[in-house]
Structure formats: structure tokens, C-alpha cells
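[[Encoded backbone]]
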Amino acid sequence: MRLGGNPSLAAGAAIVGVIAAAAALGPLVAHADPFAIDLARSLAPPSRVHWLGCDALGRDVLSRILWGARLSLGVSVSVVTLSLALGSVIGGSAAVAGGWVDNLVMRAVDIVLAFPGFLLAIALAAILGPGMIDLVVALTAMGWTGYARLVRGQILSLREREYVEAARSLGAAPGRLLFRHLMPALAGPVAVQATFGIGGIIVAEAALSFLGLGVLPPTPSWGNMLEAGRAFLLVSPHLTTAPGVAIGLSVMGFNLLGDGLAGAIARRD
């Protein structure tokens, strides 16, 4: 896939690559311990030693941003992977089965979609309690329905193709039809939706952590860093600016990457 003729894809890949590198390597090379408290440096402004300053407890903001990147991307990729797997199996099975099974499954999907997704995630997070695993479960419950609808719609348009009819006439079981003949053809559309989905989950994870329903301090999260810095917005704006910029750049990078992938797939087809 060429990047030169696709500026959205090139820009998105560059931004996502930098963020992924920061998440993977940043905590290993960060010069300061993100958990170390030093009240003598409380609310220190950005400097040559602490590029993004220090928070109210004297912890280095840059180090905490880098640790937060690892958590944010880890949660987002985990949620999208689980949502994609669950939604693909449910939507694909419904489309292949057809008839009353398809109707029953899709009515259940419609019931879940009737609830605002983020409010459902808030309710589940409140019931399950704060923590990374519970956060992933709550966000997965919000995200799988979109993949189920996408996969079902795509399979309904593909299942009458000649190669699928040939496989069916040769006695291929429904499971083999789904995973061997139909799902590989959905790689492009699913990849585009998953890329956009990561950006959305980054925002949702930050919002839940901001509300105290996600990852709790002292573990660094961009969301709980925003919440902690809110009280010092006027005297130390770097406490909210740094995680806000990190969230914005991450979402922009994944959205540009998704736009670029969609454009590349459209030109290929």
C-alpha cells in the first residue's frame, strides 16, 4: 500500500507510529519515575529538567504521559480486539444462518443499540468498579454491536457470490463458510472501522478515568491526569494541556489513518 499518494494515510501512520513508539519505549527511557513524589517540585513549570513540568505531588508530567500512553493504547487495542472478535462471530453467524436466527440476533443488537453507548459503559463501570479489566469489559460491552452490524451487512452482500455458492454446494459447513470464505473478504472494511474504533475508545477510556470509573491514581492515565489538573487550571495549565494534547493527537492520528485506509481500499476496488 503506497503512502506517497495518500496524505491522510501517511500522516496518520506517522502520528500513530510516534505514539506507539512512545507507549512501547517511553517508560523505558523516561528520566524520572512517574510515581516518585517530591513535594519540593509541586506544580513546577516546564523546564529543561522537566520538559512538561510537575504535578501537585511533584511527579514528572512527561513520564506520566508516557506511561499513560501505554495504558491508553493497551486498553484501546484490547477493547477493539475483543469487540471485533465478539461482533464478528455474532454478526457473521446471524448472517450465515439467516431466517429467524438472524432476526432474533439483530433484534437483540438493536436493543443494545437503543441505549446510549457511553451511558451504558458508565453504568457497567459503576457496577463492576474501577480497574483496568473491568474498564475493558465495560467498553467492550459498548463496542461490539457496531462490528456485528458491519459484518452482518457485508456478509449478506457476499453470501450469494459464486465462490460462496460453490463452497456451499460442495457441502461446506456454515462455520467453514464464515471463517474460510467470507471473513477474509471483510478485512478491509473491518480494519477501517477498527482503526476509527481505537480513537473512540481512547476518548471513552479517558472520560471514564476522568469520572473516577476507570484506572485510579496513582496509576497514570490521561483521563485521571486531566481530572487531577483541573483544580490547578489557572495556576498550572500544563497539567491539563499535556494530557489533553496527547488525547487529541492520538484521536487525530487514528482518524487520519482510518480515512487513509478507507481511501486506499476505495481506490483498489
